[in-house]
Each structure stands twice: as C-alpha cells, then as structure tokens.
C-alpha cells in the first residue's frame, strides 16, 4: 500500500504542519525504541513474548505516535551524560586506545609517525552515531569495531594510503554507527574487526582476570 500523501485544503492551500505524534519516524527513531525495549526486557519490565510483539510493531512503525505508544508504560530514560571530544595524536611513538572506555560523540585521530589504533570492542558507547575524523598522515589510523556496528566511509578522502573498510555489513538493530570523515594520508585508514591474534590475547586476559 502506498504511503498516504496529504491532500490540499479546500481553498487550494497546503495543509498545516503535522502534530508531533503524526510526524514520520526515521530509521534512527525506530532503532532507538528497539534498544529501549530490549533494555526494558533485560530489566524484567516486559516479558519475551511482549518484547517480540513490540519489536515487530516498532520496526514497522511509520509515525512518532506509534513509537510513543510502545514505550508509554516504561520509565523515562535520561539522556547520556556528555563526554568530552577525544583527540588522539600518533606522534613519534604511536597511540592505542583499547579495553573498557567510554566513547564520546566526536573523535579526531591523527596518525603522525607512530600511528593510532582505536579499539571499540569493549568500549561503552551511549550514542547512536559517533563522528570520527581520521587523518592517516604518515603511519595511518586503525579502527577496530565490534561485529554488528555500522561504518560509513563515503565522506573520506582516500589520500595516497587509501581507506579500507573490512567490516561485515550486517548492522545489529540499535548498534552504533561510525561516520568517518578525514583523509587517508600516506599511511591510510583501516576499519576492521578484531583479528585472530587479538581475540586470542583478549581470551587469555579474561581467563587471567577470572
């Protein structure tokens, strides 16, 4: 069935602005509700059968009003606390950011002569979209993301080193999107998942901590 197109008013003019509940929902709006419903199920506020029903309705909702009804009986979620933008400079010896850390909404990385490696695998990310300016310079920038996260590199300038996105394309509903800008420089910019060696090292570290 085709989407409803508002008809002109009786006097031939355009209809007035839609009331808030009638505004069309975006993919990001639907995904935010999906994430909130999953959190509510994890907290025991709704059972799995109701979760499945609400998720189906959320993914097919056309307006904000339809989405609002799915979360009307859930507690209001406070917005994420602000996190200062992160700036990483590879310099002479390189910089790594990994382990458990809180992701800000804006990140800038300069590869310098030593390179930058930014690992999001175990990071806490409260944002639907993270803006990353990656400048490969001489040594390059490497971004490691969890499976299920989405990556956009269309606005990157490849430079001499290029921009390589080695991630799988399937995005988990509600997972963050990394939107990359910047320049590949000489060293290039690479986005990938953990490799076998990194997964093995992480497994050893987890066993040792336990």
From TrEMBL:
Pfam families, per database record: DUF1707 (PF08044)
Species whose genome carries this gene: Streptomyces hoynatensis
Superkingdom of origin: Bacteria
Signal sequence segment: none
Name of the protein: DUF1707 domain-containing protein
Renumbered residue ranges of the record's region Disordered: 1-21
Membrane-traversing stretches: none
Residue span, DUF1707 domain: 23-75
